[in-house]
TrEMBL record:
The keyword Glycosyltransferase applies. Its main location: cytoplasm. This is Xanthine phosphoribosyltransferase. It comes from Tetragenococcus solitarius. Gene3D superfamilies: 3.40.50.2020. SUPFAM superfamilies: PRTase-like. Converts the preformed base xanthine, a product of nucleic acid breakdown, to xanthosine 5'-monophosphate (XMP), so it can be reused for RNA or DNA synthesis. The keyword Ribonucleoprotein does not apply.
Length: 193
């Protein structure tokens, strides 16, 4: 997505250790116009897949996921990282290991929101090692729902996430793909859409 690549070039900042800071338009302050076009683009890419639910994980996956769901005219569900007081129903849960934080955390979705009738599109802001997306796939599998694809805003192509997800036979579409963050400079690979 050319507009997204240009915006990363203009407003993204490279931190050490291979981290890209995009907090002025995606992960903290959010540009809703850009986010809406990101959602529309992901919806267009997966338009033929008969998606019934968009699934993401809090917090910064919610922005792209809500606009994708709006475009597809389906509900959006975000997995929670902490148990909500009102989540007293049966839960789907899985464990997600964060390489960045070196801790595992439990993520969950109420079982009542996913069933074997569902065809799910997973959406997230970043793909790094793919552990968050893998955890979301496991939640969908527990419900018997079919994961039709994964839509990513920014893929860090020098990490292992895409390989992990493709090995699980789930198609990955990233709107921006980063080849490297060396010398404080962002280099891109050709994006999927
Ligand atoms: P993985 O799911 O791909 O394995 O990712 P990893 O554990 O490495 O990443 C942990 C968190 O850091 C995730 O957010 C992920 O979206 C985010 N992240 C990964 N790489 C980058 C990056 O280069 N830049 C930025 N800005 N974020 C990155 P989170 O902490 O789980 O959630 P949230 O509450 O911030 O959404
Ligand atoms: Na994040
Ligand atoms: Na995220």
């Amino acid at each position: 997505m050319e507009e997204l690549v240009r915006r990363i070039q203009k407003d993204g900042n490279v931190l050490s250790e291979g981290v890209l800071k995009v907090d002025s338009f995606i992960t903290h302050q959010v540009d809703p116009d850009l986010m809406k076009r990101i959602g529309a683009r992901l919806a267009e890419v997966f338009a033929k897949k008969k998606i019934t639910k968009v699934v993401t994980i809090e917090a910064s996956g919610i922005g792209p996921a809500i606009y994708t769901a709006q475009s597809l005219e389906v509900p959006m569900i975000f997995a929670r990282k902490a148990k909500s007081l009102t989540m007293n129903e049966e839960l789907l849960t899985s464990s997600v290991y964060s390489f960045t934080k070196q801790v595992s955390s439990t993520i969950s979705i109420s079982r009542k929101f996913l069933s074997e009738q569902d065809r799910v599109l997973i959406v997230d802001d970043f793909l790094a090692n793919g552990q968050a997306a893998k955890g979301l796939i496991e939640l969908c599998q527990q419900a018997g729902a079919q994961v039709e694809g994964i839509g990513i805003v920014i893929e860090k192509g020098f990490q292992t996430g895409r390989q992990l997800l493709e090995d699980m036979d789930v198609p990955v579409v990233s709107l921006a793909r980063i080849a490297s963050l060396n010398d404080g400079k962002v280099s891109f690979k050709e994006a999927d859409a």
